[in-house]
Amino acid sequence: MTEPEELASRLSRQQRSLIAAADPATGRLPANAPDAAVAGLIRHRCAQRAGRLGAVYLTATGRAVGAGLGVAPRQRSAPAQDRSGPFAPATGDEVAEPLAPPAAGTAHPGADATGITGPKDPGAERAEVEQAWRALLEQRRILGTPGPAPWETRSPDRMVRAVALALQAAGVPPSAIDSSRRRTRTGYRVHPGEAGTVRVEWTGPADSPARRYDEQRRQLDFCAGVLLSAGWQSLLYRSGQVSYLGVTAAAGSAG
């Protein structure tokens, strides 16, 4: 019997049902989950509270138990398409140029509500992200690691990609820049932090709400919960007008 199977056998039926009911992308437990059942999952290291509101998310251990119960990651119907080169998750520093104003009565294909060039095929891009995330989870399962695999933390660049993939797979939008490195889109930005850490910021154009402390804090709270469910632990910091998460592999992972 594997460790997740043994742990699942010690959980109550209600606790196993809560794991199965968790959001497949973020790992967040239902808001109306019974306190006693939640406390039991936390005691068994299957869940943990995150953020100012104390929302409860599955940990990497909880996800492993869920996989043993047959809980599959959320999948969408968009078919994967062939792409040239290996998949690279968005870190928030990719270039997305603002579009020139369209002619009256027309709209730019591929532009989002902010007038920024978006992916030409969002469905295919989403399928590619989910395929990469499922592949990473399968590698962790094969290696028997409850959190990030050793290769995910082997270098700052690998850590950045692994953390960015966890956020992108949960549907958190990445930021973007133009050719002058000005922010053109609101979302997360992931880049190397202090030794052994990755830094996650919430940022956007100069006049966007993302530049406010309260908005940064709110969005980073959510990101911290998503990352916790993916096997990463975060601490919130503030430097001047910028709030950010310092992210490391969760305690007990193989990374």
Task: Describe this entry's structure for a reader.
Residues 102-115 have a biased composition (Low complexity). Residues 1-31, 70-128 are annotated as: Disordered. The structure is a single chain. With 255 residues, the chain is α+β, with helices and mostly antiparallel strands. It folds into two domains: 1-72; 89-255, no CATH class. Helix content is 35%, strand content 16%. It contains seven helices and eight strands, in the order H-H-H-E-E-H-H-H-E-E-E-E-H-E-E. The protein has helices spanning 3-10, 13-21, 35-43, 60-68, 122-143, 156-169, 213-229, and strands at 47-50, 55-58, 176-177, 183-185, 187-192, 198-203, 232-239, 242-249. The strands form three sheets. A four-stranded antiparallel beta sheet has the order 5-6-8-7. A hairpin with a 5-residue loop joins strand 5 and strand 6 (198-203). Helix 1 crosses helix 4 (60-68). The longest helix has 22 residues, at 122-143. It is globular, with a radius of gyration of 19 Å. The model is unreliable at 73-85 and 99-120 (pLDDT under 50).
